[in-house]
Structures are given as C-alpha cells and as structure tokens.
Recover the amino acids of this structure.
C-alpha cells in the first residue's frame, strides 16, 4: 500500500485548503482512513477518520472547520480545511489500514502512512 498526499502550501489566516491522499492497494477500501498532523516540537495528532461504512470523526480542534471525504472507487481521501489559523500549521499525514473496533478506528503498528504534506498558515 502506498499513500501520496498533495495539496499543502503556505496560506494566510482565514483561507481554505484542500488536501488529497491517493492510495494504492487492493484491500484499501476495507479499512479506515484518516488524517493526522504533526506540528514542530509536538506529537502527531489525530484530525479525522473515515471508516469503511461511512462513519466519520473529528478532533475537537477542527470540528466545524474541516470536512473529510472518501472516494472508494478512486481510492482517494480528501480533507477540506476552512478558516485556517496559525495553530493548523503542521505536516499533514494520510493514514490507511485502520481497524474498526465497533466504536472507533484504531491505527496500530500495521497501518500505512504517507510522507506528509506541509501546511503553513501565517
């Protein structure tokens, strides 16, 4: 499985960005996919996931501003980010292979990760 993120950039506060993740692999649609981010000096942070059956979840810090979507036919995961602020500055990662526990998506050691796309808001 390979994941390739795109769409990052340097933007001003208040504008929008749309991140995309292109996935390969025959079984990718069977599992959860998600976006995480990591700011300098901080640990990687969960942003949002999209489970196979359509269940989504957002971190409180992005709820109401970010929207996750998934196209299983195209094997793509998208994150629409609105009203960006400086705290959104981070390296954004796409993740796949998450396991649905019945209540949540869990991304354990067998999950797949992209190389990340940088988002800088100033």
């Amino acid at each position: 499985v390979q994941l390739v993120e795109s769409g990052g950039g340097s933007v001003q506060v208040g504008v929008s960005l749309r991140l995309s993740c292109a996935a390969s692999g025959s079984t990718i649609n069977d599992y959860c996919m998600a976006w995480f981010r990591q700011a300098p000096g901080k640990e990687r942070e969960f942003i949002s996931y999209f489970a196979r059956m359509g269940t989504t979840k957002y971190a409180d810090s992005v709820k109401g501003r970010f929207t996750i979507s998934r196209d299983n036919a195209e094997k793509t995961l998208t994150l629409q980010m609105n009203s960006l602020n400086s705290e959104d500055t981070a390296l954004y990662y796409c993740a796949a292979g998450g396991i649905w526990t019945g209540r949540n998506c869990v991304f354990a050691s067998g999950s797949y990760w992209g190389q990340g796309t940088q988002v800088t808001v100033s």
